[in-house]
Amino acid sequence: MSSKNLILSKIKNLAQEEKPLPEIPNFETPEDLLETFVNSVKLNKSTLISKMELQDLVNSGAYPKVYSGSKLIEDLKTFTLPENPKDLNDLDLAIIDGQFGVAENAAIWLEDENLGLRAVPFITQHLVIILEKSKILGNMHEAYTKIGSQFSGFGIFIAGPSKTADIEQSLVIGAHGAKSLRVVLV
To answer: What is the percent of the chain where pLDDT is above 70?
Structure first.
């Protein structure tokens, strides 16, 4: 018998009484979800903008290559999404819809259906997420419950521009994703 099988058989033969899982407490949710979400967006170094500001941003010419997969605010893209994510290496601005947001930390849940390609929120220089105000949840416990009740092939929480710091505590913005995150509430 191999050592692995020996260890596994000893574990299976352990006499342990079954114990119930701990009860999950009911965590408080903020009273004003919208206000808490807006404050959390600012704390994450993101920017809240209006629909008009988004349209001005796209029309300004500062971002030549704009992809929009948004169904909430249409007609903002300047090119069609390629089949291969490698062709997105010079994407200036991506605009996508979030499924829901979390008030306590401004994390926004994104799924395949709104991304077009999974690489979009990571490869773009700047990211805009459009979120319906009615889809703001209080905390991550509510968010995980919501995620667990539906099927998705891929999902990610994004809560601000990409940032990292090394041992010397040098902050780098845009190291693993977008350099900026703007949020539009509709």
So the answer is: 98
Q: What is the H or E stretch that residue 39 is in?
A: helix 33-43
Beta strand 93-97 pairing with 100-102: unpaired
Stated pTM of the model? 0.82
Q: E strands within 47-177?
A: 47-49, 66-68, 93-97, 100-102, 108-111, 126-131, 136-137, 155-158, 163-165, 171-173
**Residue ranges of domains in the chain:** 27-185
DSSP letters spanning 141-163: HHHHHHHHTS--S-EEEE-SS-E
For residue 24, the model assigns a pLDDT of 79
State the pLDDT at residue 167. Answer: 66
Q: For strand 155-158 and strand 108-111, is the pairing parallel, antiparallel, or unpaired?
A: antiparallel
Superfamily of domain 27-185: NagB/RpiA/CoA transferase-like (3.40.50.10420)
Strand order in the sheet with 180-185: 47-49, 180-185, 126-131, 93-97, 66-68
Local structure of residue 87 (DSSP, 8 states):
G
- From the CB of residue 98, how many other CB atoms can be counted at a distance below 10 Å? 23
Average pLDDT over residues 40-67: 92
pLDDT digits (tens, 9 = 90+) for 125-177: 999 999 999 999 999 999 998 887 777 778 899 998 877 777 677 777 766 77
